[in-house]
Amino acid sequence: NIDFAKASFKDFENIAGLDPYEWAHLWKEYVAFRSRAGMFNYRQENLSGCGPEIELDILGNGHRKFVSLVSNDYLGFTQHHKVKAAAIAGIEKFGSGAGASPAIGGHYSFHQDIEDKIAKFFKRDAAIVFTTGYTANSSSLQALLKKEDLAILDMAVHTSVYEGCLLTNVKTFPHNNLEALENVLKNTSGQYRTRFVVVDGVYSQDGDLAPLDKIVKLVKSYGAYLVVDDAHGTGVVGKTGRGVIEKFDLFKEVDIITGTFSKTFAHVGGYLVASEELVNYLKFQSRQHIFSATLSPASACILQAIDLVDSEPKWMEKLWDNIEYLKTGLQSLGLDVGPTSSAIIPVKIGDVDLNARICGMLLEAGIYANQINYPAVSKKDARIRMSVMATHTHVMLNRVLNAWEDVVKKTGIVQS
Ligand code: PMP
């Protein structure tokens, strides 16, 4: 008995959150509610690309420039002349689309080159590409885990992992809680055909890392497989940008590495890196790979972006200089950025209404950052999430810090 005419944002969260199972049969009311609550403005129309400075038409003031903190283009490669030229060259050579799924005529030489290059990047034998990072997880896990198997998930893994596990048994453990992970491994020994533990390398909301060295030991000692999605760590973490796997030197130990071409690699698409047998199995068993068209020829630019991680290390250096600059600046204002060790910097706010207000204040000051609320994070854990890019300048980051200083003064969010 939801009174849609009166429900507030908080009622709405309390009644059903955004759980699609609760809302699926009420889709008209759901949309009416979101429109009334002014919640359609989350799809801001960007007129200029990933940034770091962009033009948006919001606040009813016509087009305005903003410092963007919403892009996962961590090294700024979407705007790199070599990457853009490679995308254009791909289209010139092969045309604008791939025209078929890999199984039936849509596997081109540049796809094979991308698979070879990304496997080599992670010092492994084989890789398979997908049209998104999302399906690299969802379609692969769906092909690998059935009702006789078990997926053991860190609670904070990406939603694409949960989707991939809809056909199998799932047990979760609290985020990065190794004792809880060990308990699940111990209590489920011998009960399932195959057990996969799935974790992220860098977590997308807190920007913190998985303690992968300890996780590997545990998982191996209980005879399970380990899958690591390092979508946010690749190109950011590790001496040469191979992510959390490089940081802990676990290239041989991790069974399956998944990731995306939509962040550091400046395009769109996803990959899974593993043994040749497992990759070949997926070529025949992943439904997305067989029944859905593959990456367009513009994706030839991914090859260039992968090369640039090694040939132009200055971008990673600039990124880390910017990360430290913004992080220490926010901390010196007394703001809580949590345990981040990556390019994702959240400012913890807590209350959802205050979070929305602060997001609006930042926009007024020309800063575009995302407000993250339930169900992406728990209900009391609303935050403003910022992603740092190598191509932000200190002038831009000073604008961000000045805006936050003003927010602190006006809202009193820091009690010191
Ligand atoms: N894994 C993680 C951890 C992610 O954060 C995301 C997307 N933000 C994905 C997978 C999906 O990648 P894509 O956007 O390329 O589909």
From TrEMBL:
Highest taxon in the source lineage: Bacteria
Molecular-function annotations in GO: pyridoxal phosphate binding; transaminase activity
SUPFAM superfamilies named in the record: PLP-dependent transferases (SSF53383)
Alphabetical UniProt keywords: Aminotransferase, Transferase
Aminotransferase class I/classII large domain mapped to chain residues: 65-402
CDD domains (UniProt xref): KBL_like (cd06454)
Obligatory cofactor(s): pyridoxal 5'-phosphate
Pfam families, A to Z: Aminotran_1_2 (PF00155)
Stated name of the protein: Aminotransferase class I/II-fold pyridoxal phosphate-dependent enzyme
Organism the protein comes from: Pedobacter planticolens
